[in-house]
Structure formats: C-alpha cells, structure tokens
Amino acid sequence: MLGQYDYATVAYPRQDWQAGAAATLALMQAGEAVIHRGVLVATEPYGVPLIAMPDLLIRVPGQSRWGDWQYESAQIKLGRRPKLEYQLVSTWQAWLLEEVQDATPEHCWLFLRDRDPFNVPWEERLFQLEETLDDFVAMATNQAEPEVFIARSRCSLCSWQSFCHGIAESQRHLSLLPGVTPKRYAYLQDLGLTSLDRLRQAEPDSLANLPGFGPTVAQELIDQAYATWSDQALVPTQPLPPPVLQAPVELYFDIEAEPDLGVLFLHGVLEVNHRRGQETFHAFVAERPEDEGQAWQDFLDFVCRVHPTAPIYHFVAMKWIPCTSWGRSLARIWL
Hints:
Elements: E1 8-9, H1 17-29, E2 34-36, E3 40-42, E4 50-52, E5 56-64, E6 67-76, H2 84-101, E7 109-111, E8 118-119, H3 126-142, H4 152-155, H5 161-171, H6 182-190, H7 196-200, H8 204-208, H9 214-230, E9 249-258, E10 263-273, E11 278-285, H10 292-306, E12 311-313, E13 321-322, H11 323-334
Helix pairs in contact: 10-11
C-alpha cells in the first residue's frame, strides 16, 4: 500500500502524543505530500485530549490554516468490506483532522484488501460517533466502568478478551449464555431480566413475541439460564431427532450480508460429493445491491435443480432439510 507513495513517517517517543502531534503539525505546515502514522490531538468540544492516529494523511488542493492545501485521512485495513467499526474510526480521524487544520476534508479514505479505496461518508456517520463519544466521555469523567458484554465474534479479536471474560464469569453475566446477543440482551434489560436467577424464572410467552426471539429461542434461553444457575444439565423434553445417514452428496450453506446496506450479497455452498471424494465451493454473489435477487435465484436454481435431493446443512438449522421441502417456501419469503 505505501509503496505507491513518497511519504514521511512521524517519529516521536512512545505514547508521547503531544510530541507526535507537534511533529505531525510541522510536516503538515511544511506541505508534506503524504504523512505516515501522524498524530492528531484536539481538546474541543469535550475539554479533554482527543487523539487520532490515521495511517496516512494525504495532501490535496484546498484551503486550510497553512495555505492553499489541506489533508485527507486514510485508514488501512486487511478486511475486504467497509465494516461499521472501520467507518466510525475513519469518521473519528476525519473529525479531528477538521479541528486541527481548520478545514473540512472532502473525502475520508478507507483502504481495504483487494478493492478500490472506499470513500467513507463520514459526515453522515457523525451522529453515531457523537453518541459514542458522549457515553465514553461521561464514563471517563465519572471513572465508571462500562458493563461487560462478551460478544464472541468481536471479543475474540481483542487483547482484553481474557480480562473481560474473567469479569463476566465472576458476575455470571448473561452474555456468556449461548444465544444472548447484544440485541436480545437489550430486550432482556428492558424487562429487567439481567441475571440468571431472573431469566430462569421468566415465562417463555413473555419473550416469544420480541424481535429476534420466537417460542423456540425463548424456551432455549430460559433453559440455558436454569441449567447454568443450577449447574445441572437439563434432560430434553422432546425426543432427539434420529441420526442422519450420510448422503451421497451433501450441501453446506452459509450467507454473508452487508447490514449497513440491508443486502445479502453472498450465498455460499460447499458441495461435498462422497462418491467422488470431492469438495467444491459455489459462490452466488451480488456484486451490486440490485443484483441481490438474481444471486438468490441462481442459488435456488443450483440446489433445487442440480441437487434436488441433497440434504442442506446450515449452522442455525440444527437439522437437515431436503431442497424439495424448503426451496419454494424460501422463494415465497424472498418475493
């Protein structure tokens, strides 16, 4: 990524942010074309030091406190999609850059793997950033620790995971229960069901109609809470399904979405042919939002015409379902 630029790297003592900010300002004032690992420090509007460290600051034509040039920030990530957390960090960097240079950046760049630079709509993300900042500044000012919540997909990437997990275990926090997602936990909080003891005594009907629950999830969460609270395994009241014999061809299905756009952009199928000893991955991709319907139809054509009797496994389903029994119903849901 940096090989295409003639850049200057900011040098300063470790964690001496003021020294880093001063060195960055000197390079910006000198009109350096590209500044690597700059430090931006501002104190307004919260009255406490605010620090951002964009991977790059790129000089562009325009007006700023230094003359007829200004800078745009760029963040470099290994991911392939402009995730919301990436965009919020980029928004933070662009917002502080505006304070430092007395000029509003026209663009805010996010460099991702294997795709063109993404122009973050940072001014549209400001309200989300400000909500986060308000909560954080209040927490830091009052020296009040936030509630620990263990989100498996995100916490696994954090160096503080073991520390937070220890706190959650000591509190017997509900986020440790399988199936308690951040969205579901918010509903449980509204009902005052924030402990194992309270959740285990809840009535399934009080949860079943909440968004993202349903009768099955409601009963499973209550059972999980009781089993964890009592430290005893529960015997299933329903008989277990009969074991599934291995089929000649099996399909393993998963979906990838872009929540910010409300688009399901990938239907991925791993075709396992036991007769031939082969595994083949099939990707039905929507390159643009308007292609979403066609990608879904291509997926249905594959599973219902090429392999109409093959069992389809999905990590949520907990059982196999032949295409002939669910293809048309899913098509109706789609339409």
